[in-house]
Amino acid sequence: MNILKMEEEWLQRVLPKGLPYPTSTLISGPGGTGKPLVEFAFVSSWLKSGGGVIAIPLQYPTMEFLKTSMNKLYNIDLKNYQGKIAMLQFDPHIDEYENMGDNVLTANLLKPEIWNKVIEIADSMVDKNSLGTMVFGSALNLLLFSPTYKDKVIANIENILKNDKSKTYIFSVSTNAFADEIKIWERAADNLMFTRMEKPMKLFFKISRMKEVEFSKEEVNVPISKEALTEIKELAEETRKRIIPEIMKI
Questions:
Q1: pTM, whole model, 2 decimals?
Q2: How far apart are alpha carbons 235 and 104 in whole angstroms?
Q3: For the chain, what percent of residues have pLDDT higher than 90?
Q4: Distance between CA atoms of 55 and 67, rounded to whole angstroms?
Q5: Of 72-81, 88-97, 226-235, where does the model show the most confidence?
Q6: How many CB atoms lie within 10 A of CB 157?
Q7: What span, in angstroms and rounded, lies between the C-alpha atoms of 113 and 99?
Q8: In the beta sheet, which residues pair with residue 173?
Q9: pLDDT at position 70, please?
Q10: How many whole angstroms separate alpha carbon 217 and alpha carbon 208?
Q11: 52-57 sheet: strands from edge to edge
């Protein structure tokens, strides 16, 4: 098993050796508990070590918020990694996908066959070293609001988490809705982690399970500012209000 050392001190405390790869990781917890901001720590270490990244941040309409957040939180300027990142933007109203240029694809990610296809297209776009590609996705629970595609999405993500070792996956999900369905994904992932929030906007992170690497079950406070946590919470709520009614009709 290969292991990537983490840069952040709070992550090193609970993952002293680092993240095993290629593996699948699920970060689970209530909505508004900063899960994508924790994901960014793994993505930052991956990019700085030369790996390629495919970003599927369902609650971000553009790449800009991703760039701003990662620079603020982890001091990484994504402009310096342009050939190493591809972004998949979610559009439930198109049939398949469109290439928007600049390593950005817009795709109907409700359809598992389109999800799988655009991941491979995006993978061919990014430069990477022996680390390979990390696929990170956030707010994947949004896809479960589609009555037509819900069961197919559950099965496809479960299969990826359990069986796909061609890439390293790190996904985050909110458990506010579909908690039972998300437990299927929690069981399927190699590595399982949780976040929670305490007033006034303090973020806590805990590892429940890791594959073939030592870890601590200590709960750690993630040193992210109240402003950053508030900003991402507001953006996520705005996206949910806009996109969930659309997905529920599909």
A1: 0.94
A2: 21
A3: 69
A4: 11
A5: 88-97
A6: 27
A7: 17
A8: 28
A9: 84
A10: 6
A11: 97-101, 104-107, 85-90, 52-57, 133-138, 168-174, 24-29, 191-198, 202-209, 220-222
Element (H, E) at 70: helix 63-74
d(CA 96, CA 32): 30
**DSSP readout, 124-149?**
HHS---TT-EEEEEE-GGGGGG-TTT
CB 20, CB 215: distance < 8 Å: no
Compute the distance between CA of residue 220 and CA of residue 2 in angstroms, rounded to an integer: 25
Q: According to the model, what pLDDT value does residue 171 have?
A: 98
Residue the block writes with tokens 């590595």:
191
Q: Which strand (E) or helix (H) includes residue 105? A: strand 104-107
- For residue range 101-145, list pLDDT tens digits in order: 989 999 999 999 999 999 999 999 999 888 999 999 999 999 999
Query: Domains of the chain by range and CATH?
Result: 2-14+24-248 (3.40.50.300)
Q: How far apart are CA 124 and CA 66, in angstroms?
A: 21
At residue 79 the predicted structure's pLDDT band, cuts being 50, 70 and 90, is: confident
In the block, residue with structure tokens 């507001």: 234
Residue 51 has pLDDT above 90, yes or no: yes
Q: Is 79 exposed, middle or buried (CB count within 10 Å of its CB: 0-12, 13-18, 19+)? A: exposed
Contact 88, 105 (CB under 8 A): yes
State the chain's mean pLDDT as an integer.
92
